[in-house]
Amino acid sequence: MDFVVATDLEEALDALGRGALPLAGGTDLMVGVNAGQRPDNVVALRRVRELRQRNGQRIGAGVTWRVIEDEGPRALAQAARTVGSPQIRNAGTLGGNVGTASPAGDGLPFLAAVDAEIELTSREGVRTLRWDEFFTGVKETARRTDELITAVVLPAALPGRQEFAKIGVRNAMVIATVACVVTRADDGTTTVALGSVAPTPIRIPEAEELAKTLSDPGSAALDEFQHLVAAGVRPITDHRSTEEYRRHGAGVLARRLLTRCLREGAA
Amino acid sequence: MNPVGVVTQVNGREIARSVPARMTLVEFLRDELGLTGTKVSCELQVCGVCTVLVDRKPVSSCAFLAVDIDGREVTTIEGVASDGKLHPIQQAFIDHFALQCGFCTPGFVMMAVALLEEVPQPTPEQVVSYLEGNICRCTGYRSILEAVLDAADRLERASP
Questions:
Q1: Using the beta-carbon criterion (under 8 Å), do B43 and A34 form an inter-chain contact?
Q2: What's the pLDDT score for residue B22?
Q3: In order of start, what are the domains of chain A with their CATH numbers?
Q4: ipTM
Q5: Domain covering B4-79, topology
């Protein structure tokens, strides 16, 4: 096993060009290593300073959940607080979450909700992909093996109201069975994004269209909104939950978060 | 295996070593430095027993690379007591019988050290939430909670 410790971006990109697997906070990959997996070629990234930079709407891929808890946009900070334990939040990074691309990645619904872009850097240059171009399947992305996820780029203006919540079997240390972000801008534009209910994070355009016409948190049309979300997700049954429960949970969670956004708007 | 130079401080002691790139921090602490107070259990970062502080922040040393402590400060359970005197958190754990078999104790104490540095007077809810990543299989959680809250009071009384 060839194990390179990169101290700057150049070294990291060189190693990736030779086929190394990127290791960020280690909260996913090291678990496999401890279980006996020995990837042939690994490049450790924690020493790469460039990845830890935050610059306006550009969040370096190596920024930890602990930092995002305090400094991230509202719904991403809410998501950060539900990632693992304090120990994991001190090690795990946003870029690692994006790179692993688990359907249950806690940071991913927010990225979908605000149409974030993923910045990829290689020896050949930099390209950015929209979240829906980047996430292609369960733990599959459009990243080429020679590319490093260097940042997540958020749009210049973020919606004024944003809410995150997730469902799991307990309150702590839990991998989501449903996760949801609802955002709402002052003009009523609403986005609804979910995780753990499809191979990739997904948006529900039909529900967003309907939500745009709503302003009353007590509106009877919220039933229809909930139904559209439940109908729009594509969950599976696995060891964590069932398709039926996830579908139901998706509708309930989205409705609850939209209600919160509408209440805040009315206040 | 390609060794990497590491210069670090462990419990206040300067250490310069050549470390295999793949070595985990807990292997380095236990096998290279003989600091066996830090335990290993799950190796999945879900039990908290291997918690140490890197630059005063708790991390799971089972999944943290030893090379990544270069230029940083590490505190282990061996570095908590000073001048032959237990830290008030350790004393509170003893006084509240906050350990049975004791295997999880180093991890819980390190988390309590980090928490009380960040939040000197936490609510019971804050303590429970901060300790969410640490497991006590003897299930002595109530006495651990009491010990941490009492330690917070002791530390406040002790500080000028």
A1: yes
A2: 87
A3: 161-266 (3.30.390.50)
A4: 0.92
A5: Ubiquitin-like (UB roll) (3.10.20)
Instruction: pLDDT band for B136, please (50, 70, 90 cuts).
Output: very high
- The alpha carbon of residue A72 is apart from the nearest alpha carbon of chain B, in Å, by 19
Q: Which of A33, A46, A85 sits opposite B133 (nearest CB)?
A: A85
pLDDT greater than 60 at residue A267: no
C-alpha B65/C-alpha A126 separation (Å) is 28
Residues of chain B with CATH 3.10.20.30: 4-79
Domain B88-158, what fold? DNA polymerase; domain 1 (1.10.150)
What type of residue is A228? L
Distances (CA, A) of A135 to A79, A109, A143, A199: 19, 12, 9, 9
- HSE-CB at A144 with a 13 A cutoff on CA atoms is 14
Chain B residues closer than 8 Å to A175 by CB: none
B68 and A44 in contact by Cβ < 8 A? yes
B21 touches chain A (CB under 8 A): yes
- The residue-averaged pLDDT of B101-109 equals 97
What is the per-residue pLDDT across B115-130, written as a single tens digit (0 to 9) for each?
999 999 999 999 999 9
Q: Which helix (H) or strand (E) holds A128?
A: strand A125-130
Q: From the candidates A65, A87, A88, A173, which should be mutated to test the interface with B, based on the most B CB atoms within 10 A?
A: A87
pTM for this entry: 0.93
Q: Which member of A1, A3, A31 has the closest CB to residue B63?
A: A31
Give the dihedral sign, CA A170/A175/A179/A181: positive
Q: What is the pLDDT of residues A154-165, one digit of tens each?
A: 999 999 999 999
Residues of chain B within CATH 1.10.150.120 domain(s) are: 88-158
